[in-house]
Each structure stands twice: as structure tokens, then as C-alpha cells.
Amino acid sequence: MSPENNIRTLDPLTEERWDALVASHPGSSFFHSSHWARVLQTTYGHVPHYLAEMDGEKPRVMLPILEVNSSWKGRRGVTLPFSDECGLLCFGDATGYAIIQRAREIGEGRGWKYFELRGDVPSKAPAVQGASFVGHEIDLTVGADNLFGGFESSVRRAIRKAEKAGVTVRVLDTLDATKTFFSLHCKTRRKHGVPPQPFSFFANIWKHVLEKGSGFIVMAEHQERAIAAAVFVHHGQTGLYKFGASEEASLHLRANDMIMWEAIRWYATRCYTSFSMGRTTPNNDGLRRFKRGFGTREKIINYFRYDLSGKTFVSGRGGETAGLSKLFKLTPMPVLRMIGRTMYPHLD
User: Which of 158, 230, 236, 323 is 20 to 30 A from 214, comparing alpha carbons?
Assistant: First the structure.
């Protein structure tokens, strides 16, 4: 039987075997899991098209796709929205070419404008690169003490400064902690000139991820007041930093460094083998320096976009809201939150 005839569409929200199949691949990530699919589907209504090329009951290739249907940007397939990296999972000598072809066929039938793969494409399908990011990863197997010693001196000083200033951190997984994080998130997003994700998004992260034991929030407090927080998730033996937020007036206390160290230490002392600090745009020198300070190694993450009408890979990604940054910084918070609720179902 040809690979094309043995590709199945699975629903990660109803079929428990999706997570079991994903877990059998050493390169799978949190973004491949049903937890993340459930967050995105319940928040934004995206339609899942999760593909598995099977050899009997064993997987050869797996690829999760969510269909984003937008009156603004059109219908398209993405692996996956709001995900740093979520590429093909190939077992053995499988190439993934057949499953990419099936994704194109689904897109043609569903009327997608394009299909975006957030990870490398098979070698049989040469492609134009759509976008490129820098990933940052830490090897946790050296142990917590050696990890701290491997930080740049400026990071070690920042952590000690936070401790001396009386900053404390807690690892939490409650809805109240999620609400506190969201309040800081809104302020941070406005500072950067970007609307916040809706609260329902973070409420679903709490319900489908944190409450299920697949993540937590590290909260930094000073004088009994939350000044910074970050959301971390995990899958297999890998921890991942996903969202961070902080109070601008308290940045000098260096709570963000302390939060990151607390999360790294949490994973390192629980036998996790790696920690990801997520993707960064190549020209964001400040954020790259911050992440490199924790002893990370950099890797390139490539995105590829296949235009269904032109039947070819194309370069570039959208930046529809970039020109509105200055306006968003001046927008009252209730209005900015309303814009976020309206805008994010159309984005990916």
C-alpha cells in the first residue's frame, strides 16, 4: 500500500491515541500534544486536521494542522497557530513527502489560501523559506549547580540582586495566578504596542494545561505585590518558556531573571533533559542577549508557506499590525483588550 493510501485524519480532542503516538517520537513537543490543540480549538474554534501516516498501528509520519477561518485573512492551514515550532514527526526512514501532499489536497478541497509548516519540509520538496527565527535551548543534564555556573556573570548578578532586594518566587497552577499573570500580560503587551490575547485564551491554558499538570506559572513578588510572572509548559522530558509579563516600574529588581532561573532549576531537579526559551526574531538583539545569558545554544527555526492558488512555496509572512504599534501604546486598556478579543481569532 502506498503511503498516500495509508494516511489517516485523527481528532486529537476525541482520540486518546494521538498523544500516545506523539509521545513515541523523541522529537515531539508540547505543541504537538492534544493539550495545545484543545486550548486553540476551544478559544478560537480552529478546525483540526491532524494527519498520521501509518504502518499498521505504528506511525511513520505525523503532522498536526489547524484550519484558521478568517473573514479578514482568509482560510488557511497552519502547524500550528501561536506555536514556536511544530514540524513533521518522521519515524525511521520516512520522508514526510506524502503527508505534505495530503495537506495540500486538504487545503485545495477546503479552500485554503495557503498551508504553513512551522518546521523543515521534506528534502523531496525543495521550498522557498517563508520566515526564519532563532530558537534557544538549554541542556539540563549537567545539573542545576553547573547550570547556574554556566550563566553569564551579568545574569548571576541579576538573580542575586533580586534575592537581596527581597523578591520572592512561587510556582503556581491556580486560576487566581492565571488572572494575576493576565493583568501583567495586558500591561506588558501595551508597552510593546500589541493588543493582549483575550483572557479566555489563558483561562483555557489553565484549564487544559496547567490544571492537567502540563505546566505552571512562576510568580515573582516584592513587598507582597506581584511584579512579574511567566507561563511554562512541558512535554516528555522538555520544559518550555511560553509567555512572560512584568511591571515596568519594577524591572530594576530583575525579577524576570529570577523567574527564569526558578523554572530552569525546577525542570533540572526533576530529571527533565532540556529546556527551551522559545523563538526569537533574528533582529531582536536585546532578547537574544537575554536568552544567551542563561547559557542557551541557538538553532534556526524555519517556516515554509505553500500558496495553494499558485501551487508553490512563497517567501514572507504577514505583519498586519506592525504599523499600529504607536497607536496601541496609547489605547486605553479596556479598548485594547476588546481589540485583542476581536483580532486574535484571525491571527496565527
Answer: 158
